[in-house]
Fold this sequence. Notes:
Residues 26-47 are annotated as: Disordered. The protein is built from twelve helices and 13 strands.
Amino acid sequence: MTRLGGAAAIAATILLLTACATGPTGNTTSVASTSPSASPTATPAPSWPQALIDTSCEELVPQAVVDATFGVPLAAGATDPARALFGTFYQTASEYAGGLSCEWGAIDPAAPTEDRNGSGGPDNWLAVAVDIVPRAAGVAERIASDLNGSVPTADPTGACDFGLCTADMLIGEYWVNVVAVSYADSYLPPTAAQQALFDQVAAVVGGLGESAEPMLPPESAAWASECAQIVSTETLESALDLTSPTWEPSFSYRSSNLAYGAVLVAGGQTCGFGGAESGRTGSINTLPGAGPAFAESLALARTAPEVSVVEIDGLPVDSAFVRVNPLVTDRAELELNLRGTWVTITVGGASMLGDGSLTATERVIALATAMAAA
């Protein structure tokens, strides 16, 4: 079965461990043997990401159902041309959680062109995407509790807004998000077609058995389970010039919080922080073991004009880059490979920047430097 990449796919990035296994040892005897000694059998090294879901994109949604969503052919494995601006951290998190990400897309000349809020890429891009994260019931409940929201259900009924039609479901252990996107409210898929898409995915996932038991990368052991232990409040205060900084959940209201759930299932953290006077001002997300995937993200990011590669004291060259949206100049996002863990740091907001003595980019670099030195 072929597995296709997801919404901004990083095709199977593998982290190979170099540890070798030796055979069992026992007591030796003085009896000589003329037969050759047996060589120990090496145990295959585990690799990441691991596929824990017993299906494929082709089995999940037949091409005919995909093409019927908008009434035009969509290419399997195609990715949004603007993904260099969006980043690929959360899509990679789904893969490292053992999930399945699929996308089909195409440019439709007949579709209207509408503003993508400065996100770049063709406005008439059409896409269907599906993300599935296994063993996610617990994190779905945790995120809903932190947001005072509701846990997704198995109901495949979707909703549309801002050119995006989506169904967010929790089917047994599987968190599922299905999206049909046109970026244009005037060019939404027909109701019957989008519901057929949602029903198809729900039916296949509902028939899946229990997923395989995940194995977390060894890098996950180096990270604390509590946000306050990842970076001290003293570091936040000194690096970002925050007053009485505090930690809080980094989750926010959106049509689906599956991306946050994927980070947690993969052994990572998603943490928000703020100051007494500024409120929520930033976040830190970690994805242990995903350093190789960061390298692919960096190569992609180099193609975006809003991205700058930066040097962080104590880290090798090409370990970090900063992304700044030209329309949101008081906010900056830095991504770095911190000793094998992919870390994203976001800081900004006019209330945080205060007198403007430090830009959002300078602040996010200062925090990354402090983390690298820890």
